[in-house]
Amino acid sequence: MDLQIIKIASDNKNQKILKKYTHEIKNKNSICGDEITIKLLINNKIIKDIGYDCKSCVFCQASVNLLSKKIVNMNSDKAFDLCSDVINFYKSKENKMIKRLSFFKKILTKNNYSRKECLLLPFETLKKGLKSDYGKN
User: How many CB atoms lie under 10 A from the CB of residue 103?
Assistant: First the structure.
């Protein structure tokens, strides 16, 4: 296992319980059983705070940790689009890293492709929660 993944997963300052939140999204990976709950505080379409709890592998933990750091103070529409870009990155046969995804380059590698469901679970979860707000697909 890549030591970088373990290092990213262990830096988990947003793994916390939010008492005040506007959104709670739960999701489960049907392949491996990983579970994640994300709570967001959104005000005027800006993600002010995030807390997450996961019962998951280190790949999912690393992924949600990076995602949580990236989206605080981000417009929720942009966060939705970011999630779509990451999901599309793994669906693309070319696997070209666009500049917007460079923050995630340590986890979005060919070596981690076999764990893509674990890595994508936080992005799919966040997208699911934001989709209901804005009627996006």
Answer: 14
Tokens 């990451």, residue? 86
pLDDT at 135: 47
pLDDT of the residue at 137: 42
Compute how many other C-beta atoms are within 10 angstroms of the C-beta atom of residue 121: 25
- CATH code of the domain containing 43: 3.90.1010.10
Residues of the chain with pLDDT under 50: 135-137
What's the domain count of the chain?
1
pLDDT value of position 95: 64
Separation of CA 27 from chain center: 11
Q: What local confidence, expressed as pLDDT, does residue 52 receive?
A: 94
Domain of 103 in residue numbering reads as 3-134
Radius of gyration of the chain (CA): 14
Q: Which pair of tokens denotes residue 40?
A: 């967001």
Q: What are the DSSP calls for 14-68, one per residue?
A: T-S--SS-SEEEEEE-TTT--EEEEEEEEETTEEEEEEEEEE--HHHHHHHHHHH
